[in-house]
Amino acid sequence: MPLRDIIQPKMIEINDWLRLRKYDGNFELFLPGYQNPVIYQNSEGIFDESRIPDLDYVNGMCNYLAKVGELYFIETKEGGCFVPIGDVTEKNENPPIAIWVDRYRGKGIGTLVMKTVIERLKELGFDRIMGSTVYKWNLPSRKMHEKLGFCPVGENEKEIIYELNLG
């Protein structure tokens, strides 16, 4: 287990239509999301469409994230069944979150998920989230961070770095 030998929950219920499901090794589910240029740009900062990720890239990304934090599928209920629409990694340094499916972005799902990440990290005894990096062009993510109380602590030409005290 990546976070201080804590057993990762298989499921974290957010509400009756939204949950986090523990990553099960099925990295193929991530591929369509990360092949979306908007998602890839907002997560990796890369605008070159000739560098869109393939399965090897996504597999490596998932392996890395599962080692450094608690990697989850973000799932919502569609037609009575839960389906993956994104991913999040619970960790106290730069916790990545992506909503892969266009129709679910801008609906507050990211905020609900990040609130859940914050609560989980508090439960695990962390006192802050540091180095949460957001590209300057990703206005929805910047607004979410600021709405949740993250404070900018640095920036460069492309990114703003946020931190949040959890105490």
What's a concise summary of this model?
The chain has 167 residues and is of the alpha+beta class. The chain has five helices and eight strands.
Could you walk me through the main structural features you see in this protein, from its secondary elements to its overall organization?
With about 170 residues, the chain is α+β, with helices and mostly antiparallel strands. The protein contains five helices and eight strands, in the order ββαααβββαβαββ. It has a five-stranded antiparallel sheet. Strands 6-8-7 form a three-stranded antiparallel sheet, with helices on one face. The protein is globular, with a radius of gyration of 15 Å. The two termini are about 25 Å apart. The model has no long low-confidence stretch (mean pLDDT about 95).
Can you tag this structure with a few keywords?
single chain, 167 residues, alpha+beta, 5 helices, 31% strand
Number-wise, the strands total 8
Gyration radius, to the nearest Å?
A: 15 Å
Sheet with most strands: 5 strands, antiparallel
Low-confidence stretches: none
Task: Compute the average pLDDT.
Answer: 93
SSE succession: EEHHHEEEHEHEE
The percentage helix is 25-40%
The general outline is globular
Strand content: 25-35%
